[in-house]
Amino acid sequence: MDTLASLFAILDATLRVSAPLILAAMAGLYSERSGIVDISLEGKMLASAFAAGAVAALSGSAWPALGAGIMVGIALGLVHGFACITHRGNQVVSGLAINILASGLTVVLGIAWFSQGGQTPSLASEARFMPLELPFADAAQVIPIIGPFYHDVISGHNFLVYVAWLAVLATWWVVYRTRFGLRLRAVGENPLAVDTAGLSVSGLRYRAVIICGALAGVAGTYLSIAQNAAFVREMTAGQGYIALAALIFGKWKPLPAMLACLMFGFLDALAIRLQGVELPLIGEVPVQAIQALPYVLTVILLAGFIGRAIAPKAVGIPYLKER
Amino acid sequence: MTISRLGVIAGMLLSASVATAADITPAVVFDMGGKFDKSFNQGVYDGVERFKAESGIEYREFEVTNETQREQAIRRMAQRGANPILGVGFAQAGPMETVAKEFPDVKFTLIDGVVDLPNVQSVVFKEQEGSFLVGLLAAMASSNQSVGFVGGMDIPLIRRFACGFEQGAKHASAQVDVVQNMTGTTPSAWNDPGRGSELAKGQFDRGVDVIYAAAGGTGVGVYQAAKDGGKLAIGVDSNQNYLHPGTMLTSMLKRVDVAAYNAFKDAMNDTWEPGMKVLGLAEEGVGWALDENNESLITDEMKAAVDAAAASIVAGDITVHDYMSDNTCTY
Description:
The complex is a heterodimer.
Chain A: H1 3-33, H2 41-59, H3 62-86, H4 91-114, H5 146-154, H6 159-177, H7 179-189, H8 191-196, H9 201-227, H10 239-249, H11 254-274, E1 278-279, E2 283-284, H12 287-306
Antiparallel strand pairs in A: 1-2
Helix pairs in contact in A: 1-5, 1-6, 1-9, 1-10, 1-11, 2-3, 2-4, 2-9, 2-10, 3-4, 3-9, 6-7, 6-9, 7-9, 10-11, 11-12
Chain B: H1 2-22, E1 27-30, H2 40-55, E2 60-63, H3 69-79, E3 85-88, H4 93-102, E4 108-111, E5 120-125, H5 127-141, E6 146-153, H6 156-172, E7 177-184, H7 193-205, E8 210-214, H8 218-229, E9 232-237, E10 248-254, H9 256-268, E11 275-279, E12 286-288, H10 300-315, H11 323-326
Helix pairs in contact in B: 2-9, 3-4, 5-6, 5-10, 7-8
């Protein structure tokens, strides 16, 4: 395979791997920008992945599964909100509780309903989001470089990958170009000022955790019925935390956060492809070295190039109207 | 008086003989992956279920969900009077050694690992021999002359699968290219189907068209990717041909079910013996799966070749290299 084709194959894999990270990072962005720390992205994704896998297996269709994934994400978001906004609980503790709940409950329900050790049954193609061929993908092949790029990298992903990209644009627009976005940012920086202006801090924060839950739900759905064909226990494998890291990496801004997700995805895809390949000059690189590469590069980038990431000022602090 | 005494003695004898036949409270500690992992643990589950169905003896069970539970689970079983206790997986060797020392009167059987104690029976398999056979089949089924291997966690045991597979493929034709990948270096590598599917797609892009996964739950993603990409995949441990009929070329069988069944059965019949049991092709401990799901994929020529190779291995004409004997793959 020539260099260009293998590069395109890596980029193609990058987009597949980073899609759930992007969705989860956008989910976290709404929550954290409103002042609610959300380490429960992992748990929301896992629970949604299970809900989507279960509904897809029972209904044989992907759309109700997506709906179920989103609903479960929102429900957990509301639990988080109830604990952190209404009752002003510790946001990290509440998030952690949701993660533990999701990790245990998915397996228990999976065993009870499907008796496959916490897995959901394997899905047929009809019950999944399958790769879509974008218009003119074949016709465009004749154009050098751009044609194959469009055909190999841009086209041929499932619906939810495109949703992830749209989510980034939509998030950017909502956060920076709408009245709601302005208030959302304000409530994360200085809730007292927002309150003084006559707006409901709780209302804004609740709206943020609902949007966060919905997007995390899409991310979870992606894992179980688009990328894979069944829910497998603990299938998020830490991706919620990676998304959170990407959000911090991207300084709580949509486009930089997306780029951070793409970088993590690219390094992961690269690690997968480089395993066991003879590189010029170096020879075959040991598996362990390749797998450590993403972490090493992350540390270097974080230490040397990204600079200081400043969190929203009020993040993690419950809002109390009168002290 | 005499008659009644005789009756009492007979009764005691009867109850004693019933006792030796039924007086076991077997227990099994499944490892991470769970008893329905469609693979290794499920093989053990099938074996103990068969024992339960045949003998009517219930068994206790526990599914380990994180590393710290192994020792607790085995010890709890021993404390609650379970005997024999069946441990599943190489990772239970350490915990079992600790607990077996504390309970010298309890019989322990470990599948897939070795503990050298007078009350432990260790059952290990010659996975390299079964992998050799499926490697041969893979090479014959590959139209690109390129076959792939996806391992779970990078440990010597999995390298043993890989090495046998490679040797088998090269036995079919020296020109065959064997691409190998490992999923990761932590136990989560057994449960990451997304990464499994990415690894498989990466190998397909490099020309691989038959892929062998020895990766627990991660394998589910590999088989799915093979189905989606119209390539062939080879299952492991249990017969996994039924997962995707038509794209599952075969499965490397590791008869853990037989080992699990025999452990309980021998304990019941009082023929259980500690020490090491090595099950290879000759003992029918490993093999390859042929059923209605994959018979259309296996040609007569392939079947003849694999049968001949199996016979040569049993006869000792072919020696399949064991990676764990010297931690290299030279043959």
